[in-house]
Amino acid sequence: MKPFLIAMISLLTFISCNETNGKRDTSYLSKSVGNINSLQVIIANDLWNGTVGEEIRNEFAAPVDGLPQEEPLYSMNQMPPATYTDFARKYRLFLHATIGTENKVNLVHDLYAKPQTGAIITATSEEKLIELLKENHEAIIDAFHTSEIKERQKRTRVSLLELDSIENQLGVTLKIPSAYRIAKANDDFYWIRKDLKSGTTNIIVYDVPLSMISSDSTAVGDIIKIRDSIGGKQLPVEDDSQFITEEAYAPYLFNAEIDGKFAYETKGIWEVKDEFMSGPFINYAVRDEKNNRYVILEGFSYAPSVSKRDLQFELESILLSTKLK
């Protein structure tokens, strides 16, 4: 969880799936449904078609960072409260916004199905509803994102790729779907990929000395130099070209955590130099002080004319499953 969201989340009222006057029995709840990153928005039609709906779309359908084309954070489906019954309540993510007698934001878990994460926002006016959305959308999105990562990882665990060699060579374990295969493996570099109908999704894993990423102020530049030099040399490209970071697209840099260790998270666009090939990447540089190294984990997609949000989300969920010896 990104540190700057912790204080914001503390402002929300949490209703745990196990805590309501002690314990709450959720065994009777049915299994939740829904595609990854799909959000049910329960709101009156007049609010949805006005400024409140515009604010919801601005925040929850904002473009995903690090993709070559604009794609929304969530695929949203709006329904008025009167229709939010029975099967409609089984969707895994929901946002319920309404006008009422108080100003309140509740973040709830497993309310109608499990697993499920929802945000219930009540306000005394449209203006106050918009204000609450502006103040709390980052915390709500973080909770939704955490929930969807867990769901994506659960689906991955159904059938896993055997990867004992990467643990032996690099001291790294990942939960990777069995649809992937090892494309290249040596003592210090692994390339794992999955074939798509049009293109591939890819994971690369290697390590570098701690000294190669010097400080926060130069981290993104250091990370780009590492991925261009090592990745560019290790990944085979036709016609003596090179797999590099797209220079015209400034990468995004965030602080993250993997296996309890600090990590730099970088999102950007890769390209094959002088060729019409490119796509998004997500890169984690995990600080492993015990072994005096950064473990570099990267997921990238090549999928021309295909939406890439969910491809990259799958790769992110895989990389976040990493454990270090």
From TrEMBL:
The keyword Nuclease applies. Keywords: Endonuclease, Hydrolase, Nuclease. GO terms for molecular function: endonuclease activity. PROSITE patterns: PROKAR_LIPOPROTEIN. This is Endonuclease. It comes from Cochleicola gelatinilyticus. The lineage of its organism: Bacteria, Pseudomonadati, Bacteroidota, Flavobacteriia, Flavobacteriales.
